[in-house]
Amino acid sequence: MMRIASKTAVALTATAALVAGCGGNGAGVPAPVRAPSSTVPQASPSPTASARAPGGGGSVNHPTWSSGPVTVKHNPAVPPVPAVTGVRFAAHPQEGFDRIVFDIPGALPDYSVRYVSQVRMDPSDRAVSVPGRRYLLVVLNPAQAHRDNGAATVSGVHRVGLPMLKSYAVVGDYEGYVSIVLGLDDVVGYRVGELPGRIYVDVAA
Fold it and tell me: Of 13, 41, 72, 179, which residue is 20 to 30 A from 110 by alpha carbon distance?
């Protein structure tokens, strides 16, 4: 079976850390950009841009806004398999974006992010109804969304109701791949980044 993650073609060589996971970003955050709502763009992501960290920190590389597919490689040593232990989200109206954070203690997995036209479960390929008009698919590998005893750590479809981020759904936890769909109100620019023990996705609101 073709894995969802293998369809992401463009590699992003560097991501960056902001100092707050869901606590807002101050000055120095690049302005979000909206993509046309009529099509799902396939443009490559732009190179990262250097900027000062919010809150007066030193110079860091902030990921830039894009609407094309993004892939980030970490190649973590396993075992243990990186586990998604929680999902958090918040609106950042002053900065113009909504943020969702995936908590992953320890080494971070590889991941890809791209727009998809349909939401389907992995591996059954069953269609899933997810609130939102457009869908951003996040695939983590190697990763799991359950404990060693099989108990799920994150699962299901969840309404969020932020200005742009309307929902998220865990649509796959199979053979080392965790697939999470973000239900959005439109096709917009987004960026992905990292902090210790977490991966975040910002969507322009």
Answer: 41
172, HSE (Cβ side, Cα atoms, 13 Å) = 27
pLDDT, tens digit, 9 for 90 and up, residues 4-61: 333 333 333 333 333 344 544 333 344 444 443 333 333 333 333 222 222 223 333 4
Q: 5: closest CA among 198, 105, 143?
A: 143
Q: Can you give the residue range of the structural domain that contains 115? A: 4-204
CATH of the domain at 24: 2.60.40.3500
Looking at the 3D structure of the chain, how many domains does it have?
1
Q: Which two tokens stand for residue 102?
A: 């995936």
pTM: predicted TM-score of the whole model, two decimal places = 0.73
